[in-house]
Amino acid sequence: MAGKVYLIGAGPGAQDLITVRGARLLAQADIVLHDALVTPEMLALCPQAELIAMGKRSGQRSVAQQIINQHLVDCAGRAALVVRLKGGDPMLFGRADEELRALEEAGIEVEIVPGVTTAVAAAAATRQPLTKRGVARSVAFFTSSTAPEHAELDAIPNTDTLVQYMGGREAIATAERLLAHGRKPDTPVVVIENVSRADQRIHRMDIAALSQGLGMPAGPVLVMIGEAMRARLHQPAD
Amino acid sequence: MAGKVYLIGAGPGAQDLITVRGARLLAQADIVLHDALVTPEMLALCPQAELIAMGKRSGQRSVAQQIINQHLVDCAGRAALVVRLKGGDPMLFGRADEELRALEEAGIEVEIVPGVTTAVAAAAATRQPLTKRGVARSVAFFTSSTAPEHAELDAIPNTDTLVQYMGGREAIATAERLLAHGRKPDTPVVVIENVSRADQRIHRMDIAALSQGLGMPAGPVLVMIGEAMRARLHQPAD
Predict the structure, then answer these.
(1) Closest by Cβ to A127, choosing from B100, B105, B125
(2) DSSP conformation class of A39
(3) What is A118-229's CATH number?
(4) Residues facing residue B88 across a β-bridge
(5) Torsions phi, psi for B221 (to 5 deg)
(6) CA distance B77 to A211
(7) Which terminus in chain B has less CB density within 10 A, N or C?
(8) Does residue B66 carry a pLDDT above 70?
(9) Residue A81: which pLDDT band, with cuts at 50, 70 and 90?
(10) B199 catalytic residue (yes or no)
């Protein structure tokens, strides 16, 4: 048996924000290995498949990743069409490098199906373009170090718009570093939880307020910062 | 008549890389206003719709944008479901701000459907993750000024990975500025044309080579730069 593995981006969570190609492959899959963040409605697209939950949370990451890699190789040895389903896009904060290496070393064919990354879904949900003529010509997507004590070693991006993935815990540190780099305290900030899902929540503030903390539970939170986040005159309420 | 306008991201070009939601709305649309870069196969998803091509190329941008805005408002006045279809994602280099302003000022309901942005589709096509554990924790998407004589005023992003949209013409300037900022000449670069389409082409080089120019016709070219672009040991050929 020499199965093929598809790394597929599920998008932000809503069932119909996966790509047509991704949905078609899910409906054909023999086995689907999915992240903890993939929604039940997304898994409803592959009722025929054997589901394997790869619950990966922060902490003990490298051990868990090795187990996932081994699972992928094993599954390709016993099934024709194996899907590795990840939230968002697999090539952006998706640990694809480790999984591609393991599969390639084992001689297994891999294809990647891109997905809607959380930042552009958040831009759509909040009606805030990430780029804006004359205001924002660059945007950075970043995370902080998994070891918070090393966070200050990461360079803070110098782009017009900044989007911090999994930015809940690090919100205060990010705001303080932006202020230290000369960003204006009234620069608008949009924080969004559970993008595209029924329990989506949007919070608007500025960098000064962000530096006081989010004061909210830390689900999968995205923090978007920059002048492009300023609401328009006739923009409808969130 | 008070129609609703959907700003929809078509994704990189392949017909099945639009989202399920985007495809469904296209099939229901009364009118579809599409960019020049949207592929014929994508427009085959809306055979019932009146198609209006919004051919926008570089030069005379603001005039063209005003005409597009007026078209959108007019169409919403005579049809129930109007789609504004853009390549990639509408909120990233999609001029969404201008169109949202015009529609909101006219009191027209707007909804945004995100799409697969070209950078993550290029990462999938080339099998090069944009982020990579221990190597790349941040990525910037940027364009240069439309006025080349002002390009040096834009800050060059300081992120680990850089992706320049519409980067063909500015390739030499970008490479020279990265070298001036201390990036290593052998930093890998991947240039990709017509991502996900039948005529997709991938070119691998380094910053030193990029500084000598691309030596190729400038279609819609994406330039990806950074250590995350280094090919893996067992990575299949492009």
Answers:
(1) B100
(2) -
(3) 3.30.950.10
(4) B11
(5) -105, 135
(6) 45
(7) N
(8) yes
(9) very high
(10) no
